[in-house]
Amino acid sequence: MSQQPVSRYFTVAEANSHIAELQELFGRVMQLRSQLKVLYQELDEAGFAPRDNSEHELSEMPPPIARLHSVFLGLADTLQEQIEAIMEIGCVIKDIETGLVDWPSRHEGRDIWLCWKYGELEVEFWHELTTGFAGRRPVSDLGTEHS
Q1: What span, in angstroms and rounded, lies between the C-alpha atoms of 122 and 4?
Q2: How many CB atoms neighbour CB 6 within 10 A?
Q3: Average of per-residue pLDDT across 60-76
Q4: How far apart are CA 65 and CA 58, in angstroms?
Q5: Would you put residue 2 in left (φ > 0), alpha (ψ -120 to 50) or beta?
Q6: Helices of type H across the chain
Q7: Residue 2: which pLDDT band, with cuts at 50, 70 and 90?
Q8: Alpha carbon of 139 to those of 94, 118, 126, 142: distances in Å?
Q9: What is the pTM of this model?
Q10: Is the pLDDT of residue 90 over 50?
Q11: Within a 10 A sphere around the Cβ of 98, how many other Cβ atoms?
């Protein structure tokens, strides 16, 4: 996902205050992505896969395919709305498929990421800007300044 400018820094408690909402949003995202994959496969097999650069006209499609195509576009719009709602929280989506997000934070005068993945009950990890998910460390390492 693209990097967005840091508008504010979060504490662990502030990030945790959004977990329930993120669980709900990512639950819908996962469901929508699953439905879109199935519809895309059906449309692709019929020769009418939605493409950014060469969109088929609905009038060119057989009626059942046109209906599937319309449903696909509606679900894609809903997915985009869910992604925008996640981004409005202030976190940065790192991996949409796994529900991985980071919140900008500060520790000892430097920028860091507070890290959360869909299914985790709270923000339990952080990492340096350059280490990513593989460099996650427990938030208990941050001390009380992030509580």
Answers
A1: 23
A2: 14
A3: 92
A4: 9
A5: beta
A6: 12-16, 19-45, 63-88
A7: very low
A8: 19, 17, 6, 5
A9: 0.84
A10: yes
A11: 13
